[in-house]
Specification:
The chain is α/β, with parallel strands linked by helices. The protein is 35% helix and 17% strand. Strands 5-4-6-7-3-8-9-10-11 form a 9-stranded mixed sheet, with helices on both faces. Strand 1 and strand 2 form a beta hairpin. The radius of gyration is 31 Å and the shape is elongated.
């Protein structure tokens, strides 16, 4: 039995739990409370939590920085409306100078260069103690002022972990701290990294590294997973043409939402520094998925078949040259007899059927071997 179940409940814990009891009639019918306003349309309400997961160096930070700008200016982000909000952006990886430069780049690309009148505050903790309690206290104090935060964004969550991220018990206090912060009237949004291995082979809520609590605690989960682009496909050509040869990372965006209907998946490309919607990639599978693995196997088999076809073509071409040298017609029999085919004559006949596509040669109506 777990230790927390073996320990007796404290009287004050029982009192607190008892005080939270409500009568269903007090929150339904005419007494139904008004829902909290949506900060991200169809995705997140004020006072709720959201996690963005992706593998490292896939653009999570740029996505969160763009979201911060969208909140401060009340503009769209990833096709979703954002309510103009006061936002605190907490970064644990980037120094203040670089952070300012990145935000300049994003603001220019988003067309949001006007001052935000104090709606966007930055806190760089690079090289400092990243303590979730300190951030929560900032949010609490702000909630008591005339300028409370509507949103707190944390980039990234791993910097606030103080235990084994694979342990539910050790990660529960961090999740509780994030939920507690949201009771100060602000939404809390953070980024989290994928586990090792192919993310597309796992369910969306299980793609984040560590304990399953990461995927199940937040009210909204947005996942970014790479899309498998088939070599020499129309999609590959379109990527090269549309993004003019720039490094363009195609990604599938998936949602798991507690408060809203599932909006379905979307295909985007990270075209530095922003993400661009690309619905023409919707049919491409996610890397690591069953469909992607089957596609990769099909490509490999196709390449192997092309190699074998080229080998057969070479053998037939040599045999045709011998027919010409011997002054005989290139009938199926003559070509087979003068070739170095390590197969039966019956197999050679199958190769040279016009419908087989196993070689570039076939036997015409006169039984002569000709090239396509």
């Amino acid at each position: 039995m777990r230790e927390d179940l073996e320990n007796p409940l404290r009287e004050e814990d029982i009192d607190e739990a008892f005080s939270l009891l409500v009568d269903i009639d007090d929150i339904t019918g005419e007494n139904t409370p008004r829902l909290k306003p949506e900060l991200i349309g169809g995705v997140l309400r004020k006072g709720h939590t959201m996690q963005i997961t992706a593998r490292s160096k896939m653009g999570k930070s740029w996505m969160l920085e763009a979201l911060c700008v969208a909140f401060a200016n009340g503009v769209e982000w990833m096709g979703h409306t954002c309510a103009q909000s006061r936002v605190l952006f907490v970064d644990t990886e980037i120094d203040e100078d670089t952070l300012g430069d990145r935000f300049n780049t994003i603001k220019e690309r988003m067309g949001c260069t006007e001052p935000t009148d104090g709606r966007m505050r930055l806190l760089s903790l690079r090289g400092k103690d990243a303590n979730i309690g300190s951030v929560a206290e900032i949010a609490r104090r702000a909630s008591l002022s005339d300028t409370p935060f509507d949103v707190v964004i944390l980039d990234s969550l791993y910097s606030f972990e103080t235990g084994d991220e694979n342990s539910v018990t050790e990660m529960r206090p961090l999740m509780q701290a994030l939920n507690r912060m949201s009771t100060y009237g602000c939404s809390v949004i953070w980024s989290h990294h994928h586990a090792k291995g192919a993310a597309g082979s796992r369910d969306v809520v299980d793609r984040g590294a560590g304990s399953g609590i990461f995927g199940r605690s937040p009210d909204a989960l947005i996942d970014l997973t790479e899309i498998a682009i088939r070599p020499d496909s129309d999609e590959e050509a379109q990527l090269a043409e549309r993004f003019e040869g720039r490094r363009a990372l195609p990604l599938r965006v998936s949602y798991v939402l507690r408060e809203f209907p599932d909006p379905g998946t979307e295909s985007v490309v990270f075209d530095w520094p922003l993400f661009v919607k690309c619905p023409w990639l919707d049919e491409c599978p996610e890397k690591g998925s069953t469909a992607a693995n089957a596609q990769a196997g099909s490509v490999a088999n196709s390449e192997k078949n092309d190699d074998r076809r080229a080998e057969r073509d070479g053998l037939i071409a040599d045999a045709l040259a011998r027919c010409a040298r011997d002054g005989v017609l290139p009938t199926r029999r003559n070509v087979y007899e003068r070739g170095t085919f390590q197969c039966s004559e019956s197999t050679f006949r199958n190769w040279t059927k016009r419908s087989s596509q196993l070689t570039s040669y076939y036997a015409d109506e006169d039984n002569m071997i000709v090239h396509e």
